[in-house]
Write the structure tokens for this entry.
Amino acid sequence: MLASTIPCLTFRGTPGLAAGFLPLLREGVRLSAPSGLTLRQVMEQILGMAPDYVTDRVLTVFLNGSPVDDIDQVRVREGSEIGLGAAMPGLAGISMRRGSPIKAFREAIAARPEAQTGAAGDAALTVKLFNLVADEAGPEVLRRGVGLSASRLAAFLAGREDGFWGKIRGLEADGLAVSSTALLHGLSQDRKSTRLNSSHTDIS
């Protein structure tokens, strides 16, 4: 858990609530994972993606800005930045795809497997989800929890319209119920990080 005045925030609401947070996932959120996990392991064990979804749907993978072909060999370490998306259109999209038939065009910038080195323990990662992967896998990632700065979350929430807040049925800070006003005030005073969880409850 990330150190913070408000370490863990939970938003509970209707099933459509998670979609309101997807811009944060596209911009990037922080996660923690054991250093040395392969990208496939991160997707399945940390992000909660099903194995067949990873194989068939997550076809565009970047590690620190470099396209990845072999997600079973390329590993993460402290500070790694991961970008995940479905197939992208156009020639550029095809060339960046895992196992692309024209991957030779970007061979010089592709991520390559490295020997598993570095300190053991958890590594702080930045994860970005794009296009359909954000829409489809984003709700589960949010349910598991993501990290971001309190100031960033405060700015994001301050810009949400009534439709977003109307989907929320409960807010909790460290397990204690709080009002939206108190939450925004607390976040504005915080200069550290917070952990965001989003879950939905069907409301009849």
